[in-house]
Amino acid sequence: MLKIGIITGSTRQTRVGDQVAEWVKSLADQRTDASFEIVDIKEYNLPLYDELIPAAFTNDYQTPEAKPWSKKINELDGFVFVTPEYNRNITSALKNAIDYLSAEFHNKAAGIVSYGSAGGTTAANQLRLVLSVPQVATVSTQPALSIFTDFENMNKFTPGDFHQQTVQTMLDQVVSWSSALKTIRK
């Protein structure tokens, strides 16, 4: 069975992305075509990237925190990134986590669920560009959540019901692409 990681994109104390990730997982768990788990980048405590050799050229990481992060990403077949939009971009924590690895991401698929004042769409577009370097194929359907209408007081997640179908369509794409790309990785 395919293993899809739902990756949180923020490590802030006041983050709301963990609520969004739990919601996506609750919808994903209704499916039988893959298994889903939340992968919280905050739990990996990755320091600012400072490897001697870039990840594109090695997977012999010197940073101890990079080893469990590498192991987790390597065992997954695909991803759903839950990303906020900070200053029209993804968070530095998410960019840092992606920069630590390369081959572990190759030939895998990803969906993006974004949130922010304008649905986080600019951050999602930036994330697509970042993910293209380690050869992650991003699917086209992208749930975009408004911090004003899908959250109470910008801190309690209360998504509109119409988002559920968009998430399921995105998951359909992530599962089918992940399945197809798994054949390339063999």
UniProtKB/TrEMBL annotation:
Entry keyword Translocase: no
Protein family membership: Belongs to the azoreductase type 2 family.
SUPFAM superfamilies: Flavoproteins
GO cellular component assignments: cytosol
Subcellular location, principal: cytoplasm
Pfam families for the chain: FMN_red
Keyword DNA damage: no
Segments crossing the lipid bilayer: none
Localization annotation: Cytoplasm
Name recorded for this polypeptide: NAD(P)H-dependent oxidoreductase
